[in-house]
Amino acid sequence: GFYLGGKEINEKKYVRNAFVEGDAYFNFGDLMYYDKDYFIYFKDRLGDTFRWKGENVSTNEVANVLTALPFIQDANVYGVEVPGADGRAGMAAILLKDTVEFHTDLLPQIFHHCEENLPVYARPLFLRFIKEMPLTTTHKQKKVQYVKEGFNPALISDPLFRVSAETKTYIPLTTENVSQFMAKSRL
């Protein structure tokens, strides 16, 4: 058995006859979903949704949209605390492809791509451009550190940007303008 606890405990963890009679899948509590071509994907369990404005945001969905852009290698999406706001604001740590130099031209492209492919509440409010994607020993993206650092320019040396609906792009977030942004934005 997989667990010390006898067959009856393990039996609960199996999904039987899921696709064909007699098959058995071990159910680790992961969510499965189908895409339009009926491929099955397993979604990570922990920490992969956060609430913003009363809506559940799927970090995987946002990351998949971002990585569809040809210049993005990987994206680590997480919710950050915003003082006085309802829920957690979406933030993405973005790893560009090796061949791509960061340039501000990329920012409006990210903005428009998110606008076309994500509901308003799921679009990242903050972007952080990272040099490498740290993984845990199980190859899960490390989020804890990022979540802790939030979007605080005083703690983060990576280039930071915030969404600007007025200019339809992302603009630099600095220690000078972060408090202004917090004060005037009705996040």
Keyphrases for this structure?
single chain; 187 residues; alpha+beta; 11 strands; disordered N terminus; long-chain fatty acid transmembrane transporter activity; ligase; EC 6.2.1.3
Task: Please characterize this protein's 3D structure.
This protein has about 190 residues and is an alpha+beta fold. It has helices spanning about 5-10, 60-65, 105-115, 145-150, 175-185, and strands spanning about 15, 25, 30-35, 40-45, 50, 55-60, 70-80, 90-95, 125-130, 160-165, 170. Strands 7-8-9-10-11 form a five-stranded mixed beta sheet. A two-stranded antiparallel sheet has the order 1-2. A hairpin with a 2-residue loop joins strand 5 (about 50) and strand 6 (about 55-60).
Summarize the structure.
This protein has helices at residues 6-12, 59-67, 106-117, 144-149, 175-184; strands at residues 14-16, 24-26, 31-34, 40-43, 49-52, 55-58, 72-81, 88-96, 126-130, 160-164, 169-172. The protein is of the alpha+beta class. A 5-stranded mixed sheet has the order 7-8-9-10-11.
